[in-house]
């Protein structure tokens, strides 16, 4: 019996997971979206809207997403004047 395989295209990622750019790691991956060029944890225009995950700093991959989540929590705690930031 031949091995099973499945091809997942950018369109499939977009349609299945509502990823606007169709990229598995969130935003497209040109130089302009690497490291410090990614969006920060706070929305520039909407108060109380924060980001964490593959499409925001520090970036994709489980360790970086967890670091980004902690950084976002620190920002929120500092703005509220609570926590051990």
Descriptive notes:
There is one protein chain. Helices cover 32% and strands 0% of the residues. It has 85 residues and is mainly alpha-helical. The longest helix is centred in the C-terminal third of the chain and has 19 residues, at 62-80. The radius of gyration is 16 Å and the shape is elongated. The mean pLDDT is 79.
Largest β-sheet summary: none
Q: What series of H and E elements makes up the topology?
A: HH
Given the structure, what is the number of helices? Answer: 2
Number of strands: 0
Identify low-pLDDT runs: none
Apparent shape: elongated
**Which structural class fits the helix and strand makeup?**
mainly alpha
Percent strand equals: under 5%
Provide the helix percentage.
25-40%
User: N-to-C terminal Cα separation, in Å?
Assistant: 56 Å
Radius of gyration, in angstroms, nearest whole number: 16 Å
């Amino acid at each position: 019996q031949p091995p099973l395989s499945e091809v997942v295209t950018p369109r499939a990622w977009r349609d299945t997971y509502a990823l606007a750019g169709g990229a598995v790691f969130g935003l497209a991956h040109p130089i302009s979206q690497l490291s410090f060029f990614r969006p920060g944890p706070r929305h520039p225009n909407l108060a109380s809207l924060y980001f964490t995950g593959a499409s925001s700093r520090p970036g994709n991959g489980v360790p970086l997403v967890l670091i980004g989540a902690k950084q976002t929590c620190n920002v929120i705690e500092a703005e509220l004047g609570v926590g051990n930031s």
